[in-house]
Amino acid sequence: MADLSAACRTMEHSRLSLARRLKLQQIAIFEKVVECGSILAASRELHMTQPAVSKSIQELEAQFGEALFTRSKRGVSLTEFGVLLERHAQTLSAELRLLADDVNAWSNGASGQVVIGTLLSASARLLPQALALLLKTAPKVSVKIRVGSNDVLFPELRRGHLDVVVGLLPQGHLPAGLTHVPLYTEALCAVAASSHPLAGLPAVAGPQLREYPWIIPAPESDVKGSVQLFFDALGVGMPHQVIESVCFLTNMALLVESRAIALVPRLVAEQFARGGAITILSLDMANAPGSVGYTVCTDRQSTAATQRLLRAFRQVAQEWKESTAA
Question: Residue 69: pLDDT above 60?
Fold first, then answer.
C-alpha cells in the first residue's frame, strides 16, 4: 500500500479521472460498511459475501492510495481519509436519491419519496394535516417520518438523509447552510391531568406550581430557549423536580398517572385536551410565542414530492390564520 499510496499522490485527481475509475456501487458498499461498523455486518445487509465486500473496499482504497478503515476485533473505524471520503459519499448518495425521486415524479406524475424530521411542536396538528393534504393530491408519494430534536435532525438534514425538518424554529444563531421558513407563532402552555388539584382553577400563580413535579423538554430540544423564558415569566425560576422528555406519549401517560405538570406547545395541548384526559392550566402570566415552520437545505434543490409537501405546510398554516381571523 505504501508504494501505491506514493504513486497516487503524484497523480492529480480530476473530475473526469474519478468518473472513469469510481463505481457508484463501491460508494454504496463503503457507506454501508461505515453504517454497520463491520464488513461482516455490511455483507449481511447488502446480501453479498464478505470477500466481495472486502474486495470492493480494497479496490476503493487502491484507487485513492489511502486506507479507508482501521481494522480491529470489534469491527472497523474510519481513518482520517475515510472521514473525508464519507462526507462526499453522503452528498453523492443524497443527490442520487433526489435524482431517483425527480425521475419517478416526472415519469409517474405525483410520486417519489419524502423523508421528514419532525419535532413535537409540529407532530400533533401541522404535520398530520399537511400529510393528509399531500396524499390527496399525490397518493403515490412515499413518506418516512423521523422524530427527534434539532441537534439530531439538522445534521441529518445537511447530510441529505432528510428532505425537511418541521417544528419550532430555533432562536438566536441559525445553523449554516439551512433556510428556515416561519409559518405561524405558537406559545408554550402548562397542562395537567383533568383530576389534578390545579385543574379548573380560574388562575394559577407561580408559587402554586412549585409544589408539583414538571415534565419539560430535554435541554438539547427545539424549545430550550422558550422553556427558560416561560419560567422566567412565571417569576419562579426553573423547577427543582423535573423529568426531561420529548416523548409525548410517555408524557401524557405520566400526567394521567401522577400529579406532574407538563410544558407543551399550545396547539398540541388543545388537540389532546379535547379528549378530556388532560386540561390546560390557566396561568397568571404572559407567554412569549415562538415561530413554527420548516427548514430545508439552502444549497440543495427540493424534490418535486418535497415541494408538494412544503406547499401543503403553507396552505394549512394559511387556513389556520384565516380561521383565527374570522
Answer: yes
Sequence letter at residue 162 = L
pTM, two decimals, is 0.62
Which residue type does 256 have? V
Q: Order of strands across the sheet with 214-216?
A: 242-244, 214-216, 261-265, 188-193, 278-280
Cα angle 28, 34, 37 (rounded to 5 degrees) comes to 135
Q: Are 149 and 221 in contact (CB under 8 A)?
A: yes
Q: Quick one: which of 149, 292, 150, 172 has its CA closest to 229?
A: 172
Contact indicator for 270, 187 with CB cutoff of 8 Å: no
The H-or-E segment that residue 242 falls in is strand 242-244
Residue 101 sits at φ, ψ, to 5 deg, of -65, -45
Cell 420548516, located at residue:
294
C-alpha closest to that of 263 among 202, 222, 324, 320: 222
In this structure, what DSSP letter does residue 4 have?
A: H
Q: Is pLDDT at 107 greater than 60 in this prediction?
A: no
Residue 9 has pLDDT above 70, yes or no: no
Specify the pLDDT at position 7. 44
How would you label 224-253 residue by residue, b for 16+ Cβ within 10 Å and e otherwise? bebbebbbeebeeeebeeeeebbebeebbe
Looking at this protein, which amino acid is placed at residue 87?
R
| CB within 8 Å of 269: residues ≥ 6 apart | 189, 191, 278, 280
Residue 159: Cβ-neighbour burial (10 angstroms; 0-12, 13-18, 19+): middle
| Element at 143 (helix H, strand E) | strand 140-147
Provide the grid cell at 191: 397542562
47 Cβ contact list (under 8 Å, min separation 6): none
Question: Taking the mean position of all CA atoms in its chain, how far away is CA 217?
Answer: 16
